Amino acid sequence: MHNNPFDLSCDSCTIRTHPLFRHLEEQELQEIMLNKITETYKRGSIVYQEGNRMKGFCCVQSGIIKIYQTGFDGKEQIIRFAKPGDIIGYRSVVSNEPACTTTEVIEEAILCHIPAEILLNLVKTNSNFAVELMKLTCKELGEANSYITDIAQKTVKERLAEILIHLDDEFGEDLQGVLKISLTREELSNIVGTATESIIRLLSEFKSLGYIEINGRKIKILDKPGLKYIANI
Length: 233
Hints:
By secondary structure, the protein is α+β, with helices and mostly antiparallel strands. About 45% of the residues lie in helices and about 25% in strands. The protein has 2 domains: about 1-150, Sandwich (Jelly Rolls), CATH 2.60.120.10; about 155-230, Arc Repressor Mutant, subunit A, CATH 1.10.10. The chain has helices at about 20, 25-35, 90-95, 115-125, 125-155, 155-170, 185-190, 195-210, 225-230, and strands at about 1-5, 35-40, 45-50, 55-70, 75-80, 85-90, 100-115, 210-215, 220. β8 (about 210-215) and β9 form a beta hairpin. α4 packs across α5 (about 125-155), α6 (about 155-170) crosses α9 (about 225-230) and α7 packs across α8. The longest helix has 27 residues, at about 125-155. The chain starts with a strand and ends with a helix. The model has no long low-confidence stretch (mean pLDDT about 90).
């Protein structure tokens, strides 16, 4: 990790379109710009870890971040991914609790760190900002509830199909139709919540049935309706 040699303007940043920041007054935006720290992170870098006291939250300007919790056996359980335009770490700031997740860079990223005092002050003084923050928290809670339901009620095969569809919807495809997010088999198993061997076997099965095409970590979805049928979506 290192400080970026240039300072990203909040006016032109993708984060400016986020519902939270659309409600900021010019003076509030200027305060963020004056106090933020912009840093670049290589793949594999840890932004913050479970148990850390949060000094602020982060805006993702570029790259992809995986957010996970570590089980008693040391195995990761991936909760979600953050992409450009997302914010991370805000819930621990608002609740004044240690971070309950770890964030790791899986695609080189630029993050803007914003001090906790600014977030808390905006919650107190800007009602529109506070409402949007509450909506964002509720949205993430709803996604967590859906994930728990899937884990409890769907088979591993159904969950993998659903995850592939979700990754396609969330990150899109390149010009060759390959998913823009590239994950290891272990990372896929940590999302689905199963053994890596099971993921390898199921990916091979999906490939043989013509649902996907695989080249190393690159996955191309060939039959999205077929995957939706498997996932019971």
